[in-house]
Design brief:
Layout (H helix, E strand, L loop, with lengths): L4 H4 L6 E3 L4 H9 L5 E2 L16 H22 L7 E11 L2 E3 L5 H11 L3 E16 L2 E17 L4 H9 L20 E5 L2 H5 L3 H12 L1 H9 L28 H5 L11 E4 L2 E6 L11 H4 L5 H21 L2 H8 L4 H8 L3 H13 L3 E4 L2 E4 L1 H7 L8 H16 L1 H7 L4 H5 L6 H5 L3 H24 L8 E5 L5 H9 L4 E6 L1 H4 L15 E5 L12 E5 L7 H14 L5 E9 L7 H13 L5 E2 H9 L3 E8 L6 E7 L8 H15 L1 E4 L33 E3 L14
Parallel strand pairs: 1-2, 1-3, 12-13, 12-15, 13-14, 15-16, 16-17, 18-20
Antiparallel strand pairs: 3-4, 3-5, 5-6, 6-7, 6-9, 8-9, 10-11, 16-21, 18-19
Bound molecules: thymidine-5'-triphosphate.
């Protein structure tokens, strides 16, 4: 196979093409690559305005397509591929991104924009090298993009419509197919033709050469990727032998930069590509490869150093209600915003510019206006507003986090330092004022409302007739549940101080009868009767001892057939990968006695009360982890010591993780639009298979209850 020695390196690997595109399949099979096709379920809905350049959008989408497939295969099908290839093709004209047209009118709109002009076609490609270590998926991601310039002739309306009626535009970016009828519209092409058709084969082969043959990497870098490595150099690569390591050999050294940056830091291997390793820790101080990347900036560390500035800019803009002003009146000049909100012009201008650079605002010659994300999530009255949680983050979490050092030294919460108050009873002591109470409830409402759909639909709960949401606060989840399950009646059970303030948060125009509010303390008072008990973002507030008290109370009132549903962020078992959840655990340290836990830890807690059979799903949105624990009564005859060991082993084998993205999950009994921002506003580049929630469904059998520990 002299012509494709580089591709020969993939012969012995399980290669997966994460794409339904027949063009990509054809391009790759034409050169003899053997691969399995697993189309990605990732929906191409990333917020375009949050990317500074169109190709970044294509690369990120390609990456997300590939990540979704890798994770689904690993978790759901328990088959870890060796290599996953994802790609995304977009057309860019006048700074706008054009994808596939949704209908003929859309195709006409796109083709009219391209008419008589030059545009760029970008294909982003992600190559994931995967391996499974201790049942944990580890990946190294290499991504790159290719740009091809295409010019359309001046075309008549009649011709455009004739072309549209041919049906060809509909599944193609920009609404045309250069390889078929659409070729007649094109005056010239500068660059890789196959890139326009959907896959930049030449660049892909160069990238493989860099990955699989380190010596060639230098060649390629020196030549800035403008030629294929010499075939002679690759004689030994076409032998089809499998790799000795899980990833291409040179990679570890290429991961390090002069600062010793490692793990998920990006290392640019050529002008328009990067390589990132997920789930890996490369030892700091390893000097291999440092010299070649010594001039690189430690971008990951710099980003972390500055992260608080971006957060604070968002907090202050929210606090000043700038997004509300711009929604009503935008676009507005800085001076007008400053006049409206009563701030300085120079300070406001800097804040608005910073927000625009962060993708929260758009800046044009007319002034500043909200992006779609800002309109949806940052205005204070939007259906999916995060405003309440942002204000809570600014006013409450920020001062607490300022005392993180003390929290770490002392191992305890810092309410006394941050606010000069004890936190033993949040509502009676710290939350003494009506305003602060409302703010806290608004924060909880923001998150609960935004994530309720995924919590409600993660599993089919239609068999339950009644549910009790313990600590259900404003009833956001309860209202979502009764929407999804019309036969369900939900009781929200929370402290009297909370229940007294819920009226403000009730949905207007919705039939609220199936939701009732009952006040009480779930540690002290009798629990309302229900088939299903829900604990959403409750267990993480408490230490194990208190959780046992609560679970035993629930267990005591459950009849056979009853169940428990728990929603929480979930850490990975080794507690090293899911930084969002790990940071949330620090968040619990500074303000509560609780913490975030891993799936195994939740399962162990529940098992003490007879709960077994765990399933975990990844939602892909803010509350990413969904777990279901089938809970059954166990006999009391287990020998304690032995059972600890056996349990530990069984725990890791007994729960099943499933990819569950808001975009791919179809509620089996009711189709619903996913409400959540799949991509966190400020961190689209780091969206990994990381956070967050677990849902636990625990069912009773009539076997006798196990003894309490
Ligand atoms: C511009 C252009 C695009 N295209 C195609 C390539 C891609 O298949 C498609 C762009 O859509 P993509 O979203 O990149 O790919 P896809 O939806 O076909 O497949 P998947 O998401 O599963 O990977 O447009 C052509 O075939 N010819 C062209 O001239």
């Amino acid at each position: 196979m002299a012509l494709n020695p580089v591709l020969g390196k993939l012969v012995s690997k399980r290669v997966v093409l994460a794409s339904a595109s027949p063009r990509r399949q054809e391009i790759l099979s034409n050169v003899g690559l053997r691969f399995e096709v697993v189309p990605s379920w990732f929906k191409e809905t990333l917020e375009k305005s949050s990317f500074t350049a169109p190709y970044e959008y294509a690369v990120e989408t390609a990456k997300q397509k590939a990540l979704e497939v890798a994770n689904r295969m690993h978790v759901k099908h328990q088959r870890t591929p060796d290599v996953v290839i994802g790609a995304d093709t977009i057309v860019s004209v006048d700074g706008q991104i054009l994808e596939k047209p949704v209908d003929k009118q859309d195709a006409y709109r796109m083709l009219s924009r391209l008419n008589g002009k030059e545009h760029s076609v970008f294909t982003g490609v992600a190559i994931l090298h995967c391996c499974s270590k201790d049942n944990h998926l580890e990946m190294e991601i290499t991504d790159f993009y290719e740009e091809t310039k295409v010019k359309f002739s001046e075309l008549s309306e009649e011709l455009l419509w004739e072309y549209i009626h041919s049906g060809e535009p509909m599944d193609k970016a920009g609404g045309y197919g250069i390889q078929a009828l659409g070729g007649m519209l094109v005056e010239y092409v500068h660059g890789d033709f196959l890139n326009v058709v959907g896959f930049p084969l030449n660049h892909f082969c160069k990238k493989l050469a860099e990955l699989y043959y380190p010596a060639s990497k230098q060649n390629v870098q020196h030549k800035k990727c403008d030629s294929m490595p010499s075939v002679d150099t690759f004689k030994n690569l076409s032998d089809g032998k499998s790799e000795s390591s899980d990833f291409p050999e040179h990679k570890v050294s290429s991961k390090l930069d002069s600062s010793g940056m490692c793990s998920s830091g990006a290392v640019y291997t050529s002008e328009n590509s990067s390589t990132v390793r997920l789930g890996f820790t490369v030892p700091l101080g390893n000097q291999n490869g440092v010299s070649q990347s010594a001039s690189k900036l430690p971008s990951k560390i710099l980003e972390l150093m500055d992260g608080f500035r971006a957060s604070k800019a968002l907090f202050v803009a929210s606090k000043l209600k700038i997004f509300d002003h711009l929604k009503d009146k935008g676009p507005m000049k800085a001076v007008d915003v400053a006049n409206d909100v009563g701030t300085s012009v120079c300070g406001t201008e800097r804040l608005l510019d910073a927000c625009a650079s962060l993708g929260l605002l758009e800046k044009t010659s007319q002034g500043y206006s909200n992006t779609d994300s800002a309109n949806t999530y940052l205005t204070s009255d939007g259906k999916y507003s995060l405003h309440g949680y942002i204000i809570h983050s600014n006013d409450h979490l920020w001062p607490l986090f300022t005392n993180l050092e003390s929290a770490v030294k002392e191992g305890s919460r810092q309410n006394h330092r941050a606010f000069g108050k004890k936190a033993d009873d949040l509502f009676k002591d710290y939350y003494h004022s009506q305003e602060v109470k409302q703010r806290f409830m608004a924060a909880m409402h923001s998150i609960a409302h935004l994530t309720a759909r995924d919590v409600a639909t993660a599993f089919d709960l239609s068999k339950f007739k009644s549910a009790c949401d313990l600590g259900g606060c404003t009833g956001a989840l309860a209202h979502e549940l009764v929407q999804v399950y019309p036969n369900l009646k939900v009781t929200v059970f929370d402290l009297p101080e909370v229940i007294a303030n819920t009226s403000y948060f009730q949905p207007s125009g919705q039939h609220t009868a199936p939701v009732t509010f009952v006040s009480g303390d779930f540690f002290k008072d009798n629990l309302p009767e229900a088939d299903l008990y829900i604990l959403s973002r409750v267990l993480h507030d408490w230490p194990d001892e208190k959780i046992h008290v609560l679970l035993s109370k629930i267990s005591a009132v459950c009849r056979p057939g009853c169940a428990i549903l728990v929603a929480e962020m979930v850490l990975d078992d080794e507690k090293k990968n899911r930084s969002t959840a790990l940071l949330q655990s620090l968040n619990m340290l500074v303000q509560t006695e609780g913490k975030e836990r891993s799936g195994c830890e939740y399962q162990a807690l529940l098992e003490k009360h007879g709960f077994t059979n765990v399933k975990i799903r990844i939602t892909g949105n803010l509350l990413d982890w969904i777990a279901e624990y089938e809970i059954r009564r166990k006999k009391r005859c287990r020998k304690k010591k032995k059972s600890m060991v056996i349990e530990k082993k069984r725990i890791s084998q007994s729960y099943e993780e499933e990819v569950f993205t808001a975009s791919n999950f179809e509620c089996p009994y009711k189709k619903l639009e996913p409400p959540c921002p799949v991509v966190p506003l400020l961190s689209h580049r780091k969206l990994q298979l990381s956070p967050f929630y677990s849902i636990v469904l625990a069912q009773f059998s009539d076997i006798q209850k196990s003894p309490m520990m």
